[in-house]
Each structure stands twice: as C-alpha cells, then as structure tokens.
Specification:
79% of the residues lie in helices and 0% in strands. By secondary structure, the protein is mainly alpha-helical. The chain is elongated.
Length: 136
C-alpha cells in the first residue's frame, strides 16, 4: 500500500462515517417527532403508525452498528500511523485532518500550534508514513 492509498482510504472511511452520522441524526429527529409518546401507556390516537417508528428504530440500530464498524477500521488504520514513528502531536494532526476533516486553522487551534506548524507536523508524518510503507 502506498501512502497516498492509505490516506485516501482513511479519508474515505471518515467521509462515510460523517455521512452515516448525518443520516443517524435525521432519523433520530424523525423518530422523536413521530414517536415521542410511543413508549407511554397512554392510548394512541387512531392511525398512529407504530410500524413506522419501529422501522426507524431498526434503521437507527443498523446505522449505529455501521458507524461502530467503520470507526474500528479507522482506528486500525491509525494504529499503523503510530507504528511509523510519529510523535503524539503528529498523530493528533493527522487524526484531526483526516478522520475529523478539520481545516488547517481548526487543527492548529485544537493542537495549540500555529497553522504553519500544523502543516509541518503533517508533512513530517506523511514522510514517516512513506518511509514506513516503503520498508513494509
């Protein structure tokens, strides 16, 4: 695997996780709106569609399972990053940039460094990854 392939895979998984999380939030909002009182013992209004709520609940469970699986793959990929000799700060920069898809100013702010330093740490981590993958 090349470094570019590795980073593309990490980025792709992170994008999928974000999209699934967005779907999850929408479904949870819909479930709350249509089934907020579903779990009470009060009689339901005629025409209350409990199967729709159950269907949404199943979709929510499936999405949560999907997110958990994708996050595990993402963590496994990032374990490779820790094997290549990256510092903790480089690891954080890479995680925030790829897994969280933050902008450079956001990454720099969260890590507590300037934007140029964050980019430098990223570039060093990429170089270490290239060396690691060429030796593997």
């Amino acid at each position: 695997m090349t470094t570019e392939e590795y980073l593309f895979i990490v980025w792709s998984i992170a994008v999928r996780i974000r999209k699934v999380r967005e779907q999850l939030i929408k479904l949870m909002n819909v479930a709350t709106a249509i089934g907020g009182s579903q779990f009470s013992d009060m009689p339901k209004a005629p025409g209350f569609n409990s199967s729709k709520v159950e269907s949404i609940a199943c979709k929510i469970a499936d999405l949560k399972t999907s997110i958990a699986a994708e996050e595990e793959v993402l963590l496994q990929l990032f374990r490779e990053l820790s094997k290549c000799g990256c510092t903790e700060r480089q690891y954080k920069v890479m995680w925030m940039r790829y897994a969280e898809a933050l902008s450079w100013p956001e990454v720099a702010n969260k890590v507590g460094v300037g934007r140029r330093t964050a980019i430098y740490e990223h570039d060093v981590a990429v170089s270490l990854l290239k060396k690691y993958f060429s030796e593997s």
